[in-house]
Structures are given as C-alpha cells and as structure tokens.
Design goal:
The complex is a heterodimer. Helix content of chain A is 69%, strand content 1%. Chain A contains 15 helices and 2 strands. The chains are: A mainly alpha, B mainly alpha. At the A-B interface, helix 2, helix 3, helix 4, helix 5 and helix 7 of A face helix 1, helix 2 and helix 3 of B.
C-alpha cells in the first residue's frame, strides 16, 4: 500500500544506498527544507480561505466566490496583491529590529514543525524531549512580537505588543500544565511514545474527567496564545488598528499573517497529538474488528482530520464569543485557569498512580 | 533525522522570509515621500514618541509568570517519572505546589494580580 511511511522509507533507503551518508543527509535536509516551505505556503493559502469561508458560513453569507471555482484562488490573488505592495519602514523606527522581527516569528513557527508526527513514522525529528521542546520553542514567539511592536515606534504597535506579551506569557502556563497531564499519564516526553500510548483509545476518552478538563484548558490557552478572538486584544481592530503589525506592509505583513495561521495549525496539531491520538486511528480497547476497519483509513488523514477539526473549533470561537477586556483576560487566567490546572494536575497524578484510567 | 534538521528548518525559515521580501522588492517601484515615513496615528501628524513609561501591571505579571514558568520546568522531569516512583512523588509535588500556592495567594492578597 502506498503511504507516506513507505515513501519516506524507500527514499531514505535509496539515498543511503546510492550516496555516502553525508551527501544523503544533505539531500534529506534539502528535501525537508523544500517540503516545509511548501507546507507553509499551502497551509497559509488553505487556512486563510478556510477562515473566510467558515466566517461566511456562520454569518449566513457566501464569502469569497469570485476568483476561481467557489473562490478557491482568493488567497493566491491576495498574496499576489501583497507582493505588489511596497514594504514601508517608518523613518523613526528601529530599522534593524523592525526588519528582524518577521524573520524571528517565521523561524519560531518553522522550528515548531520538527517534532510533529504528521503520519505514522513521518516526523522530521523524533526528539526525546518533544513536548518540552515544543513549549520551549513556542514561548520564543513572544520575542518576535515584542520586537515588532517596540521597533515600530508607533503607539498602537507598542500597546498591542505589550498586551500580547502579557497574554502569551500568562496563558503559556495553563497550556503547559494541560500538556503535563498527558506527560504524567504516558511517562514520556517523546511524541512517538505519546502517540503509541493511545493505541487502545485516545487520552481524551481513556483519561476521562481530568483529561477532558485539561483538553478544555488547553484549547482556551492556545486560543489566547495565538492571539485569536475572543482573546485578540493584541490586534483588536477597533481599538488598536492592527496591534503589533500596524506599521508593517507588503510581504513583511504577509509573513506575520502567515506565521499567525501556521501557529494555529501547530497548536492544533499538538492538541490533536496529545489528546486525540495524533495519527492514531480511533481504536476502542479490544474491539479488534472495529480497530482493524479503522486502520484502513490512512494515518495522515486521521492526523489532518483531527487538526482541522480543532482549527475549525478555534475559528468557531471567533464568531461566538465577544472580546474580553485586558483585566478580564488576566483575571481569567490567574484567578481561574491557573488554580484549576494546578489542581487538575494533582488529580491526574492520583489517577495515574492508582491506575484509575482505562 | 537528528539535530541537523533544526538547522535545515532555520534555513528554510530564513529562505522563505527573505525570498518573500526580495520578490516583493523586485516588483515594487517605491516612491519617497516624507509623509510615508511617519508612524501611523489616525492620519494626524505623529505626536511624541511612544517609547516612554508603560503600565507597571505588565511588569508585575511578568514577574509572577517567571516564578510559575520555572516551576513548570521543574515539573517536567517529575511528570516523566511520577508513575514509576508512585505515592512518594505525589506527596512531594503536593508539598511543592502547596508552598508555591501560598506564594501565589500572598501575591493575590498584595494585589499583584489586580489590573489597575
């Protein structure tokens, strides 16, 4: 059967048979670079269109439908427009930091792809501290945002960046505790081990109440971490123009915009991996017949399906909840989510030690 | 792949961003105008620099975050072994979280978590 797993395996075997190890590794690196760039471009195009279509569907209108059949080339046309735009730098800006910021944001988004398992045995680097790596690298994105806001020398940008910094930094804690619950249950930080531990059922079902609480906390926290509505204070259009990227235009703006969508994809992919089994098909305990039928659906389809479902949920939030004020936002995290996640972690520990999960 | 993949990904990110910006530069014929160089401010001429004092609340939250973030890092190795070690690890972490939570309550009492 033709699958991503067999393709990568054949390619690797062929490369290492044909060339010396160093050259084979270099060729692999080039392939990874090209694949990641393609993934970025395709994801950017798909997610922006999806966002607009979902928004249109929720507001009972058509959404983009002029460019191409059903408007599928709308974002490609928008990208062309953005390429034609002049990238302005304000005279009073800190030019070096101003130009560096989009690079930092993109680097963080790209580095986060490394430990994600897109399909069975289809992973760039199965690092043994995968979960820790993810939380370490994802917390770097705040540097890019603060840098952009500070260097712009614009009041809206600075205010947006400050809010964004406070928000990302606060909600990182809840997201971290939610991730830790799964680490407690599996006893491993490696992504492939976490996926393998869900072979007889996803953690969301196996871990019952505490894991469901952790899942809800995770979704709330990552919605805030990616600056999505209802936590989009950092770029609240009606108050702050565009927040930290007010002064950016042309391709630099496009990079920020793209990184934002890639980050949504990545946090949803991680959520799908930890709580919904990643590429693991829906397995139920010892129902071998059922499990076998589910195995016929390719693992990449499972992974993408779960990820895009979570992305859809986050897009759904945007049109359901009104935006919070900054004090409400910080109250929610520090007075509710953080104590809840601390006690939830203890609850999970008790359940893991006593073996009260499936 | 090993750690070299991170270098590959960094190169990919830089190539992607730099490529995009350079392609933009090729197509754009910019014109220079003193108005264009000003920071955006509702269309009126820019007034004073934004680089001055900002709300101290952000700083307080950053400090509390720092404590909890370090705590989170301490808990990663604990989370990996807790199932093997068993009850002892649970009691230890309850003591750890209790002390931390007392500090959190103190910060709350002092009004550090109140946005003003």
């Amino acid at each position: 059967m033709l699958s991503l797993e067999s393709i990568t395996k054949t390619t690797q075997d062929w490369l290492f048979a044909k060339f010396s190890p160093e050259i084979a590794l270099t060729i692999e690196c080039v392939i990874v670079i090209l694949l990641c760039i393609t993934l970025f471009a395709v994801l950017g195009l798909v997610l922006v269109l999806l966002e607009r279509k979902v928004a249109a569907r929720i507001q009972i209108r058509l959404g983009p439908n002029r460019v191409g059949p059903g408007g599928i080339f709308q974002t490609a046309a928008d990208t062309l427009k953005l390429i034609m735009k002049e990238g302005l730098t304000p005279d009073s800006a800190d030019k070096f930091l101003f130009n560096l910021a989009p690079f930092i944001v993109m680097m963080v988004a790209m580095l986060l792809l490394a430990p994600i398992a897109f399909a069975k045995n289809f992973q760039i680097w199965d690092i043994n501290i995968g979960v820790l790596y993810i939380s370490a690298v994802s917390s770097l994105s705040v540097i890019g945002i603060l840098m952009a806001g500070w260097a712009s020398n614009n009041k809206y940008s600075l205010l947006g960046a400050m809010r964004s910094g406070a928000q990302i930094v606060s909600y990182e804690l809840s997201a971290g505790f939610a991730v830790l619950t799964i680490v407690v249950l599996t006893g491993s930080l490696r992504i492939s081990d976490i996926v393998a531990s869900q072979e007889n059922g996803w953690w969301l079902f196996k871990g019952h109440i505490p894991v469901i609480i952790a899942f809800v906390l995770y979704i709330i926290a990552v919605t805030a971490e990616t600056n999505r509505a209802p936590f989009d204070l950092a770029e609240a259009e009606s108050e702050l123009t565009a927040g930290f990227h007010t002064e950016y235009s042309g391709m630099k703006f496009a990079l920020f915009f793209l990184a934002e969508y890639i980050n949504i994809f990545i946090v949803c992919a991680i959520g799908a991996t930890l709580f919904l089994g990643g590429w693991m098909p829906l397995h139920i305990g010892h129902w071998d017949g059922f499990n076998h039928i589910m195995d016929y659906i390719p693992s990449s389809v499972w992974f993408m399906g779960k990820t895009f479902f979570l992305i859809f949920v986050i897009m759904w939030f945007r049109w359901t909840f009104p935006r919070l004020r900054v004090d409400q936002l910080l109250n929610l995290e520090w007075k509710y989510l953080l104590p809840i996640s601390l006690f939830n972690l203890l609850l999970v520990t008790v359940i893991a030690i006593m073996g009260w999960h499936f | 792949m090993g750690a070299i993949s991170l270098i590959a990904l960094l190169i990919a990110a830089i190539a992607f961003s730099a490529g995009g910006i350079l392609v933009g530069k090729i197509f754009v014929k910019g014109s220079k105008n003193p108005q264009k160089g000003q920071a955006y401010e509702c269309g009126i001429p820019t007034n004073t620099s934004p680089w001055h004092q900002f709300n101290v609340g952000y700083y307080l939250f950053a400090l509390i975050f720092l404590i909890f973030d370090v705590e989170l890092v301490f808990m990663y190795p604990w989370a990996v072994v807790v199932k093997k070690v068993g009850m002892v690890a649970l009691i230890e972490i309850i003591v750890f979280i209790f002390i931390l939570f007392m500090g959190f309550l103190y910060a709350h009492k002092k009004g550090a978590l109140k946005w003003s």
